[in-house]
Amino acid sequence: MLKFVILVPQEVETTIATLSSSMTITSLATSTSTLPQTTTTTATTTTTQQSGWFRTGSMNNVRERHTASLLTNGKVLVIGGLYNADPTIGELYDPSSGTWIITGSINNAREGHAACILENGQVLVAGGANGGNLNTAELYDPSTGMWSTTGHMNHPRDGHTISLLTNGQVLVTGGLNGLGALNSAELYNPLIGTWTLINTMNNARYGHTASLLTNGNVLVTGGYNNLVGLHSAELYDSSTGIWTTTGNMNYARERHTASLLINEKVLVTGGYNNLSATNTAELYDPSSGTWTITGSMNHAREQHTASLLRNGIVLITGGRGHS
């Protein structure tokens, strides 16, 4: 059974008591001395923040290639994955108690799928694999804990990306089907629950990344095209539905991460470079469409995670190394 480990600031309270004394002496002609003494105690409490790792509750099921989605109520929904005794079971993590509870079961078991939070707070899960690649999609309603089926994608796909656009629709790109990498893309309309094929990408790819930029465009980077890892990148303009190529990355990579930074640039880290896992990183500047190499990570890794923290720092965890 696997356990979650969470990095949080931990409060440590230190109370320091400062004693101050005052003494009054009155001398009389009778040589009698009166020594009234007043003592004042002041307590000062200082709270400091310390970061550290601590264990939290274990999931009810072992999983790999699952998804985890932060709901609007602050809980985390985990669904699908491999090595699960019942792969349809969903679980909810409550950060306030550090515990997991079973929630509604998904209609189709799946791993390698994609999930995103819609504007109405529901979770859309699409594609993945269960023996073969899937084109099915489902919706999770946090208010009821129940799953309902929605429209099927036009193509089964695994290892694809999913992005919520600024217009409320959902963009799915690439992935893998039974024949190989896909260059197809489609849009999901939550209002009517249907998928529409749109213009294809310039390159077929899976194991790539998709990042929603501040201008509303989607940046797709890297991936694998059945033959080699890719260093190409392209942009989807949601206002026109057109794909355009942009500057190539300096290194080919798949199963990497891409993070939109607070300065509106995109940080790409790690991945597999056709030979092994890599520790390289680079920055994409949307204003110029170019990539710049930045500092390398301390460890080469692929299939890792990257999280943008509130202070603008990117936290990289786990993955696979050279072996």
From TrEMBL:
Name of the protein in its database record: Uncharacterized protein
SUPFAM superfamilies associated with the record: Kelch motif
Keyword Repeat: yes
InterPro entries per UniProt: Gal_Oxidase_central_sf, Kelch-typ_b-propeller, Kelch_1
The organism of origin for this protein: Adineta steineri
Keywords, ordered alphabetically: Kelch repeat, Repeat
UniProt cross-references to Pfam families, sorted A to Z: Kelch_1, Kelch_KLHDC2_KLHL20_DRC7
